[in-house]
Structures are given as structure tokens and as C-alpha cells.
Fold this protein.
Amino acid sequence: MSFDFKIKGGPNRGAVLVIGVDGDLQKVENTEKLTQDVIKIAISPLNPRTGYGSLISKTLIGNVLPMDFLVSTAENQINNCLNNLQKLQKEQSSRQLVSAAEQLAAIQQVKIERNQTDFRFFEVVIKVLAKDFSTVSTQFSIDPF
């Protein structure tokens, strides 16, 4: 089974590694790892060399194109980065044991909406199906700050 270190916070709140009561860095596994992997790839700036990440924040923030076009483009970018995550997980599973709960089987929903209270913010909702048939849902905000 693979693991990753547990991250708390986000790019706008200062992401930090979480230390457990025993003083060691906490780890995430199974569904919690898949959730963290989905968030990480979606909010990471796209690295053109590796293809890891997305252009979601550059697409949504500061553009004057029609909103439905921007949202559709950003949703496609998230779908593309999640497809890339599937490929990366397949490659990883050929070299080490990766549980079914950690592997992305299907993308169920990617939805981006403008925040109705403050139009500068966007709410992103992602639902995926893991290979153990569990549903993983996560959401985060994209803001211009």
C-alpha cells in the first residue's frame, strides 16, 4: 500500500505537513490519499514538462471571456488532470502495491460555479469513483488572492 504525507491547508492558506501526537509526520492512505491526490493535482500549477497539474486558476482568475466558456474550459482542464492522475497511478501500481481505495477508477462529476456571495471566488466540486467502488467527494475554492 502506498502512502503520502498528510497536508493541511492549501495554496492560499499555507499548506503544512501534519505532525501526529507521536511526533512523526502523519500519513494518508486509501480513500484519504485519493482525496489528497485529487486536490493536489487540481490545484498545482501545470508543469509543461511533466504534465502534472492544471491551469484552472489561470483560466478562471483575471480573464474577461464569457463566464460559461471559462467554466467549461476549467472543467475540461480538471478532467484532463484527473485522467493524467489515473495514468500516473497505473504507472505507480506497476512498481509498488497501491490499494484499490487509492486508485481513481472513474470521474463522476467536475463542477465549477462562481461564488454567489463574492464573484471573485469560484467553488470547485469533484466526485470520483475509486477502484474499491467507494465515492470520493472533495471541494475547494479558487480565489484571486
